[in-house]
């Protein structure tokens, strides 16, 4: 899965599973100079998600990344 696809899947997860408002996501997306990996931390730092939601995002990312790796 490409980085763009992973980013799109993350935003979909935030909207559908965690019910993060589009406005909150858009606020953080206004920082294109920052790596996308810091996206969840920015949401939390700005007070847009709870610590519990941040943990859910990290769990989802961990699962998403581990399932997208190819084992030889």
Structure description:
This protein is mostly helical and 72 residues long. The protein has one domain (3-68). Helices cover 65% and strands 0% of the residues. The chain has four helices and no strands. The chain has helices at residues 3-16, 22-29, 39-45, 51-68. α1 (3-16) packs antiparallel against α4 (51-68). The longest helix is centred in the C-terminal third of the chain and has 18 residues, at 51-68. The radius of gyration is 12 Å and the shape is globular.
SS elements, strand count:
0
Q: SSE order in H/E notation?
A: HHHH
Distance N to C terminus: 17 Å
Shape: globular
So what's the oligomer here?
A: single chain
Can you tell me the number of structural domains? 1
Strand content: under 5%
Radius of gyration: 12 Å
Structural class category = mainly alpha
> What low-confidence regions span 5 or more consecutive residues with pLDDT below 50?
none
State mean pLDDT (0 to 100 scale). 86
Profile the largest sheet. none
- The percent of residues in helical segments reads 55-70%
Number of helices: 4
């Amino acid at each position: 899965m490409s980085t763009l696809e992973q980013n799109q899947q993350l935003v979909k997860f935030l909207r559908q599973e965690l019910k993060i408002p589009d406005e909150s996501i858009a606020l953080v997306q206004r920082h294109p100079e920052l790596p996308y990996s810091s996206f969840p931390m920015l949401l939390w730092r700005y007070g847009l998600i709870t610590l519990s939601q941040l943990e859910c995002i990290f769990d989802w990312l961990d699962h998403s990344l581990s399932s997208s790796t190819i084992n030889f």
